[in-house]
Amino acid sequence: MHPEGRDNDMGVTPGLDMPLDEAMRTQRAIRRLKTDPVDDALLRELLELALKAPTGSNAQNWEFIVVRDPAVKAKLARFNRRAFSLYGRIGRRANQNDPKMLRLLDAVQWQADHFEEVPVLVIPCLKGARLPFPSVAVTSYYGSIFPSIQNFLLGARAVGLGAALITLPLWNVIAARRALGLPWSVTPCAVIPVGWPQGRYGPTTRRPIEDVVSIDRYGNRAWREA
Amino acid sequence: MHPEGRDNDMGVTPGLDMPLDEAMRTQRAIRRLKTDPVDDALLRELLELALKAPTGSNAQNWEFIVVRDPAVKAKLARFNRRAFSLYGRIGRRANQNDPKMLRLLDAVQWQADHFEEVPVLVIPCLKGARLPFPSVAVTSYYGSIFPSIQNFLLGARAVGLGAALITLPLWNVIAARRALGLPWSVTPCAVIPVGWPQGRYGPTTRRPIEDVVSIDRYGNRAWREA
Q1: Distance (Å) from the C-alpha of residue A85 to the closest C-alpha of chain B?
Q2: Is residue A107 part of a domain?
Q3: Do the chains contact at A150 and B155, CB–CB below 8 Å?
Q4: How far is B25 from chain A (nearest CA, A)?
Q5: ipTM, 2 decimals?
Q6: Residues of B in contact with A24 (CB under 8 A)
């Protein structure tokens, strides 16, 4: 049992009762993970919280694949490396003067290099046809999975597990579908590598609220003066 | 000042320190809202938590429109009613034997009838082109806004504000863009009507985890036996 893990079977799992605002203020993508195993019961609790998120028309049309099988992991690792070899090159060139983005790319590179060693991958999927238009149908579709993904990530942060939302392993969605045995009616939406973090969680910096909020109409930055 | 609202300027806003798992377990869409005003400072705190959510490549390419202007609200109310008059009819016919869905449709109907009286609407948007393909590019795009929407909704639940994620007012995205003064480069993703609830938050029911989780490959419901 990991020291930060579940340590009793009664009541709330230690950590999950973290104050909401603290969990949000200290959430960040954790990519460098230890190889220590992740307890099934703990993972289950995070998935149960994920299932508490809202879905369009309360359809709950989600599916979650929990991958520990080395053979399936190896396939996704290969897809991820292939996509990152292109994305990483472009990214480094485009951000060569941005040390923060270069650090992020270093972490993504580390993740690509160690993908097979990640203890567990969680792959949230949606069932049912995604209409290609109108754009709001597309929005509503993804609005039924990302709230649950955010619940999962916040839960992981609260219990001290490292996690990050990535999509690179899904660039070739046909290959990803085959690796996971997904029928055409189920669309993989993201991959969440999960493990105990090498680094730590902590406060993040963001663009100031005054720069991204408009009042009544776009561009009216009244909060800037308030 | 509303009794459930912010009552000091030091430390954490009352409610926002709700245990994470409690906030998630009792989150639900609240559509029947009082007309009491919503404090600007409280709204700002929820938006600050929304901005703590992750975005793809940490782009933070979001924009939030906070609408209190009755003229803008009236336009969105009209769009919402128009879309619901069709959606609601289809929905009632399709779910005539499902009392739970009919109750949900009643709430959506109430919301449509009282849309102009909602104290404040929050409209999360994304900046930048949405590539129509590959599908994972679309996924990644929406993956940069719905985590922040979920933060906002969880924060609202924690402080006792009612809120719900809807998209019907955006079905005609050209009209919605015009009403909000959005340039082509900014896409509205959802509308969140916010106000003090007439009803109350409480535990929700969901499909059992064993029915939606697969181990290693789709369809392997090993957790069902565990």
Answers
A1: 16
A2: yes
A3: no
A4: 6
A5: 0.92
A6: 49, 52-53, 151, 154-155
- Number of domain units in chain A: 1
Contact A134 B173 (CB under 8 A): yes
- On whether the CB atoms of residues A138 and A187 are closer than 8 A, the answer is no
Structural element, H or E, at residue B121 = strand B120-127
Q: In whole angstroms, give the CA distance from residue B58 to residue B47.
A: 17
* Containing structural domain, residue B144: 28-224
Whether B181 and A72 lie within 8 Å, measured CB to CB:
no
Q: What is the pLDDT of residues A175-221, one digit of tens each?
A: 999 999 999 999 999 999 999 999 889 889 999 999 999 999 999 99
Give yes or no for a contact between A180 and A66, defined as CB atoms under 8 angstroms apart: no
- Find the closest chain B residue to A203 by CA distance: B52
CA distance B144 to chain A (A): 9
Closest in A65, A143, A158 to B167, CB measured: A143
pLDDT tens readout for residues B58-71: 899 999 999 999 99
Neighbours of B81 (CB within 10 A): 17
Domain for residue A150, yes or no? yes
| Amino acid found at B142 | Y
Please determine, for residue B131, whether its predicted confidence score (pLDDT) is greater than 80.
Answer: no
Q: Considering Cα of B40, then B46, then B52, then B58, what sign does the dihedral take? A: negative
pLDDT at B9: 46
